[in-house]
Task: structure prediction
Amino acid sequence: MANIAVLGLGAMGSRMASRLLAAGHAVSVWNRSPQAAEPLVKAGATLASTPREAAQGAEFVLSMLRDNAASQEVWLNPLSGALSGMGAASVAIECSTVSHDWIVALGKRAQALGIPLIDAPVSGSLPQAEAGELVFLVGGENAAVEAAKPVLAAMGSSLHHVGALGCGALVKLATNALLGVQVTALAEMFAMLAANAVNLDSAFEAMAATPVFSAAARRSASSMATESFTPQFPVALIEKDFGYFIEAAQSGAAPTITAARQVFSSAIEQGLGGLNMTSVVSLYKLA
Ligand code: NAP
Result:
């Protein structure tokens, strides 16, 4: 069993830390808002007052944070950052969905200290994090990825090593693009069908019987039909990911993603940023 630090105990990070504890690892935790750590401390985790303190003595330091800015602060803050607390035999694992350029920049800072960094963003949402069934999309050097595999196995059902550092981020952004364009398209389908007085239940039952309807579309359509917008993957997070995708794409080579991002941005302007991504259907009249 390993000594592991988990930085970031939001919706995903808290569930991932629980899985590590349940697997018998020694887990130190840190979160910007410390109250989020309370249930994990009750379950046996040690609370650290800074990322640096959490990282001291850890063999693996894993972060699950909102975005590039949070990642930069937590890893690199000169006084409290995790990298400054890590030993050279430890491995840094960035699980947050961040941009390719940022993860490569962070990798250079880690390398200067002799610390291997891998990017290991995940596909799957809260139920998968809770059940230890995340899919890890991993980039980095072989040795560090191999070392991290037993740790990641406690939180995921599969791991795909897709290339050098940063490739995990790119594959994750591509995966989310495929998800998000289905969500924005479904919202428009609901509106088009409703505007033409088609019974939505019958329409989606029929579409679900066709080979084009994906598992993600099925879940998203059901959430839209029942107007269940409790956040799992909120609008603001997928809008962020679409921004990182566009940053990584060649200029002008992502018109579909750019248009879908605009839909998510409009939803944020309408106050839907904290709701599940499927709430974009509320942008359109359904009757
Ligand atoms: P979340 O619930 O909003 O948690 C975000 C975490 O980041 C919290 O711990 C938050 O701390 C921390 N944070 C934000 N800004 C910070 C800053 N400036 N400095 C330090 N900490 C900061 O988000 P989540 O759903 O867990 O998502 C985490 C990551 O996983 C994101 O990159 C997301 O895109 C990705 N992801 C999410 C899902 C999903 O279904 N939700 C699925 C796959 C991947 P506080 O508690 O103090 O705010």
In short: The CA atoms of residues 48 and 54 lie 5 Å apart.
